[in-house]
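Private note to self, pasted from the team thread so I don't lose it. Backbone tokens:
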């Protein structure tokens, strides 16, 4: 069976479901009036850290975008933002036990290279002055090829960055015009060449299917272009049309109708087949990696994890998120900063953690998170292993969930063996449809999630 061509089966399970970058998902976050209990929870932990900095500014709006971005041509806006980030870091530092090392750091956006090289250098200096980094820390950044310069990359490499992600989405000129993102392939080649010259060891390329005017022929050319670039990782994202949340997406319909469900499935199948034929491994969901990449190695040895940046290579890190809308994750809580820039500035200027929403995890949440993340990342559930790690009799506790998986097994998404549940290649493609069976909060009628494919 070729899982990418099983269109009828994909359609059956192509229903809205969470992407499980967290559990509970952000839908369970509640307004936070007093962030002190969450702050106390941060102070209660030790161990390594992962830092995330949300740098929200972009020069122009891509109409498909669902990220938290601020559109401006005024690059001077980055300076007061760095000031605010510095204040926010100062609020967290007294909460952290001594000796905690940073093992990961990611700059997301927006477009981090909206910041000038001098502004970027200042930000990295502020961070380095406040946190102790492990010698093998993994540092990565999302980069915008249309504004990326050699000077940006020199600053990042001097700061220890070895990984980067670039958005391509689609290489076809007509599609680019329809989504308001003109990005000739030459810019992608130039960005990749500059990164390779400076020793970036792992580069990820983001693609998007389901955009207006995409055809199998045009998307095949896009995939060929990406294979030519030879990134270590490729993410092929499903475009989620949510104009009630992101009004700019209404503009996409001016170019013509969006691809239908079957057409979208065919586009993803085409991309997946070409990437696998070119030597990439299907890591799970919509991610592909070269067999030698750290993500593929982590997937094979069971250390891959999933967080708000997607799939990641290092498990067991507490994540501190800085900046507007940034999400932090501790072992038993999640918290998210203010969405409005003015509210974020007001909080940090007043000496308060800028937390707008969050949630404390119950023991049941912690247990189910472990199970769901094992499904999403390892693609196997070892009942005895989970029982040992949690002190809960897995088969007894999840008897109802395990008994309700006959349809998944019959359709070839998983295999139940004594003491173990194994997810097949077909199931890896539709892994959210398996994970959702363990989600006690999921409501099938709630239309706030993208479809599986």
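Design output:
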């Amino acid at each position: 069976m070729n899982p990418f061509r099983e269109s009828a089966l994909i359609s059956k399970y192509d229903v809205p479901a969470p992407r499980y970058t967290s559990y509970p998902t952000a839908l369970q976050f509640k307004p936070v009036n007093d962030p002190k209990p969450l702050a106390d929870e941060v102070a209660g932990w030790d161990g390594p850290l992962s830092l995330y900095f949300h740098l929200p500014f972009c020069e122009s709006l891509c109409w498909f975008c669902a990220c938290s971005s601020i559109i401006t041509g005024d690059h001077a806006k980055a300076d007061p933002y760095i000031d605010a980030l510095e204040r926010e870091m100062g609020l967290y530092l007294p909460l952290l036990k001594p000796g905690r090392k940073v093992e990961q750091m990611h700059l997301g956006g927006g477009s981090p290279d909206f910041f000038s090289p001098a502004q970027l250098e200042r930000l990295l200096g502020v961070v380095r002055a406040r946190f102790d980094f492990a010698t093998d820390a993994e540092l990565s950044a999302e980069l915008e090829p249309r504004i990326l310069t050699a000077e940006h990359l020199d600053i990042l490499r001097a700061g220890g960055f070895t990984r980067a992600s670039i958005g391509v989405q689609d290489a076809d000129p007509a599609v680019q015009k329809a989504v308001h993102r003109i990005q000739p392939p030459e810019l992608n080649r130039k960005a990749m060449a500059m990164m390779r010259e400076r020793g970036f060891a792992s580069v990820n390329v983001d693609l998007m299917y389901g955009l207006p005017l995409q055809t199998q022929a045009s998307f095949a050319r896009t995939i060929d272009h990406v294979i030519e670039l030879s990134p270590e990782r490729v993410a092929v994202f499903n475009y989620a049309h949510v104009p009630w949340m992101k009004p700019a997406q209404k503009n996409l319909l001016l170019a013509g109708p969006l691809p239908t469900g079957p057409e979208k499935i065919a586009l993803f199948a085409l991309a997946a087949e070409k990437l696998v034929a070119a030597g990439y491994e299907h890591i799970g969901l919509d991610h592909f990696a070269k067999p030698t990449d750290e993500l593929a190695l982590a997937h094979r040895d069971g250390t891959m994890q999933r967080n708000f940046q997607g799939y990641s290579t290092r498990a067991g890190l507490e994540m501190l998120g800085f900046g507007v809308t940034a999400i932090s994750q501790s072992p038993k809580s999640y918290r998210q900063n203010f969405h409005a820039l003015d509210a974020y500035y007001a909080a940090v200027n007043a000496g308060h953690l800028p937390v707008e929403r969050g949630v404390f995890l119950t023991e049941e949440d912690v247990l189910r998170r472990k199970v769901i993340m094992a499904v999403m990342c390892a693609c196997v559930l070892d009942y005895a292993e989970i029982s040992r790690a949690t002190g809960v009799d897995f088969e007894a506790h999840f008897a109802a969930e395990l008994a309700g998986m006959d349809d998944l097994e019959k359709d070839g998404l998983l295999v139940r063996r004594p003491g173990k549940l194994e997810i097949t290649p077909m199931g890896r493609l539709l892994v959210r449809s398996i994970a959702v069976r363990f989600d006690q909060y999921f409501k099938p009628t709630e239309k706030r999630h993208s479809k599986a494919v």
